[in-house]
Amino acid sequence: MPVYWYPEEGAVIRGELIKADIIANLIQLAAKLHEILIVLSLSAIALSIFRRRLVGGGVRLGFLTGGYRVGDLPYLWSAAFRHQGLDKSRPWELVHCNSAFENITLPLICYNESVEVWTVHLRDYNNGYTYRTKLGTCDILDSSKYPASGYSELMGWAENLGATDLANNLIFQSESTKIRRYLNITKKGDRMLSTTPPHFLMNSIGLFQQFINTTSVGAVSKEPRYQLTSKGDNQYQPFVQSICETHPYTNSSPYLSFKYPVGLECFGDADCEHTKSHPPSLADVWPNATSWSSNSLNPEYTTHHDNSSVVFTSGLVSNNNMDRELYLCTMLASWAGSTFTYTPQVDDILRARPSAGNDLQEAYHKRFDGNIRVIKFERDWFPISNPELKFSNDHLSNTTVGRLIQQLRYNETKNGTSADHIDPLGHSDTPPNISLAKVFGAYLTESLSRSSLGSGPFVRLVETDKELSLVDLTNQHGYFRDIRTYKRLNETHSNVTAQGITYYPERTFENYTATFKQALNIDMQAKRYGYGSGQRRRTLDFAVSMMCIYLGTVFTYGLVIAVLSVLELLQIHLWGGPVRVLSVAPWSDLQDLFLLALRTPNPNDQDSADVGAGVTSDQIWKKIVRVRADHADNVQLALDQNPDDTSKVETVGGKKYY
After folding, report:
1. Rounded Cα gap, residues 485 and 242, in angstroms
2. Could you report the per-residue pLDDT of 522-568, keeping only the tens digit for each?
3. Keywords of this protein's UniProt record, alphabetized (predicted)?
4. Residue 7, exposed/middle/buried by CB under 10 A (0-12, 13-18, 19+)?
5. Which of 42, 107, 356, 428 makes an SS bond possible with 523, Cβ 3.0 to 4.6 Å?
6. Which is nearest to 110 in space by CA: 605, 443, 472, 461?
7. Cα angle at 25 between 23 and 29, to 5 degrees?
8. Are 444 and 242 in contact (CB under 8 A)?
């Protein structure tokens, strides 16, 4: 973890606290002065070049006067230039930085392997026997590890249709920490793209941040503001594409032959590509469908066959003309490689990439720099993610997705007939297919987020070739604080201590350590965030650019002088004569040049005839100014044309001028 100039709360100087904003303002003032000095120094280098050109080929008058307006040549040799930002009192900071995590060993450990956490083959037993026993009851909403447990937040989102028109981001809260995450939705044509960080990963990072604040893990525990960023390419988040179409529906319409929309990006998945080339009809997906009146607001997810990547749903809604509409929706789910960032003192949001906007657009077009893994489903997974619940005697729906669709309806009576309408087809400005794609895509995304079967996380406190000690962050408080210790006992047994109980299983120490090495590892990087942390901004980029230009100019200028000096020493001839490095001491300031101009005869030039009353011709600034010598070896300025009674100044040092 880097060391910075001063703590965020300020610095104590002679017993008094100097606030951080005062220090920041002083540093900004010094930085601006430094930028000004850089500009002045660049001008000084230009002046030196101009003076050499005066006794050579000459300088355009406008260029010459512009360069003489500013300049501070001695700054190049000043201590301010030679010691920019270097603190000699603490030289070890140049080669050593404090460790953010000195007392623990990263990465975090989740007990399950990566292929289990982000499985690409979802079936009912992914969520275990305990979950299946709770089907049909509201108990499945009690624990965040169940796919349908995000229902309450999604319900609140759908209920606020009139206020937000189904906002493109939803917020989900961790149950045990203050951390939150967004479920982001982006529109791509008539398709909706949805993503969110995995729920277990949000909890893990939130628990780790709490552990940092309550336990001394290193320098990061002493920082009032820091940023945590995940590292590695083994972390994923759900990425769902959803698209819907609506068709007029009557009992006589050929609704069973209606085709599902297939405008999806398949990411090379063969099943998806086959579906795009052979779009299935309603009868293909629902072979037992005869009438849809009973399924008006009770949608279900399904696939064309088991182990398929393309998800379908269908149903009926009514429009504001009392006509029924049949909607057909298609979805494709995948795991997208991601990185996660959390800055707890700035906000409580776990930010991910891809998250929204261009990130999701890039993922859709396969330009995202992470890998994409398409998910395949067994049909028996969908009753777990979209279970039937006994909320009330409402006959319209008893599934979680159906309850969401109910929130989009309103009741209207026309000509004595009462009917329930879906708001996207009635009062909303959003097309119905877009609103339906939002709801179905968001629900599937959240279900996948909670299907990531990660457990833990564990933090390693001690790790040697004979001992491994970990703390379970999900059980770090209470009477039996879960610090697990594994020690080598002999070739066949180990010494294991967990929750204050020691036992000796017939399992080797190497077997335990190998298990944790195979588990999902979440590596984290910490850096200070805020005042004095060096966060990149446009002002910083400008200052760095100015410094690079300045140092490049100084280097180039010095290199040219050095090369010419060597060539002069070796008496090399170039351009028809010997190489000479001109060293002209006079006229270092504008007043010296002004005095030289005072004793120079008036030029015989039409453009300068009326300069006493003000310059009227812009052409005068294009004239070439040279230094010449008269018959008495007096130096003077010559404008454009060389006077006949002057001669070129000798540069070999064999003649004295006045």
Report:
1. 47
2. 888 888 776 555 555 666 677 678 778 878 887 887 888 888 888 88
3. Membrane, Transmembrane, Transmembrane helix
4. middle
5. 107
6. 472
7. 115
8. yes
Q: Which two tokens mark 65?
A: 């006067």
Integer Cα distance of 220 and 106 in angstroms: 13
Query: Cβ contacts of residue 148 below 8 Å, gap of 6+?
Result: 140, 141, 384, 385, 386, 387, 400, 447, 450
Distance CA 246, CA 327 (A): 4
Give the whole-angstrom CA distance, residue 608 versus residue 601. 13
Q: Give the HSE-up count for residue 384: Cα atoms under 13 Å, Cβ half-sphere.
A: 24
598 token code pair:
């005072």
Contact 218, 98 (CB under 8 A): yes
- H/E element, 275: helix 270-277
- Mean local confidence (pLDDT), 495-504: 86
Using alpha carbons only, give the angle 411, 417, 422 rounded to the nearest 5 degrees: 30
Neighbours of 578 (CB within 10 A): 13
The DSSP annotation for 471-488 comes to EEGGG-SSTT--EEEEEE
Backbone φ and ψ of 521, nearest 5°: -110, 130
Closest CA to 629 of 614, 645, 607, 606: 645
